[in-house]
Amino acid sequence: MSFDLFDAEEKVLEQSDSLRGRLTDAPEEVRKGVDLLIEAFGRSVREQRRLVKVSDRLQAQLSSLNHELARRRAEAEQALSDLKAAQESLVQAEKLASLGALVGGVAHEINTPVGIALSCASHLADSTAQMRRLYEADDIGADEFDRYMATVTDGSDLILSNCRRAAALIGSFKQVAVDRTSAERRRFDLGATLNETMASLGPNLRQAGHEVTIECPSGLVMDSHPGALSQVLGNFVMNSLVHAFEPDQPGRITIRVDQPQPDQVRIVYADSGKGIPAQNRGRIFDPFFTTRRGSGGTGLGLHIVYNLVTGPLAGTIVLESSTLGTAFVLTLPVSVP
Questions:
Q1: Average pLDDT, stretch 267-296?
Q2: Which positions carry the signal peptide feature in this UniProt record (predicted)?
Q3: CATH code assigned to 186-337
């Protein structure tokens, strides 16, 4: 269409030249006016040609840019998809690593009562074999019998108490592990769940001499996801051990529970560590943000906490930090909607 238009305008210019030739007898002012009009029209045609060329060039560049933008967008969407997949994989790995640390700690804790029970059983077996030899030789005196009965009594008490301790640890670990690996919703006693979770984390805390205090009203029952809550507490504890406390410096961890509303539970987890610097407080829940990148930190612990609290637990989490320690305030519904 543009070439047809310019052809028509060229014909107009030719006709203008013909007209100029026929105006030889016209007054000079008329001829000058016509010349000015023809010159202006010619400049307009040339400017239109130039603008058309510029427009064609810009359209070609715009088309190229659109193709490049589409390609970059496709690459960005693919990169985002890959990043989300990698993040989900890392989150799952972090959860499994947390459960692995729990398994290792509980195994170490169970080893002590089982070892004591085994030593006592071995000592009882030796004492019983000695007593059998005396019996078969018909050489049992009152003193030997009294010593044997004392050994049996003490050994039985030690075996029984340590087996009960191991059974309690195994029971706590079993419930915590089942809750963590299944996203099951159920009714549970909040105080019992807090105690079971902290008991499973006990080895990690006692190694450095940290003190744990739990303040929870008795009989407080929730209808929620105990596995998610256990995972949150586990990540809080590991975060305190890694970031809050200096090596070989005993600290204090406090968990306080109250009910601001009948249908709400508020859990305050606080440690007496060195707190979180002000410049980092706005980023602690961001994925992959960590101040221990070179020391094994992944930056996913508190990101997982935030997702669990705002997701399955349907609550909110607020950070309160100072130079005297760090506190996380969780507000959760008693019954998940």
A1: 75
A2: none
A3: 3.30.565.10
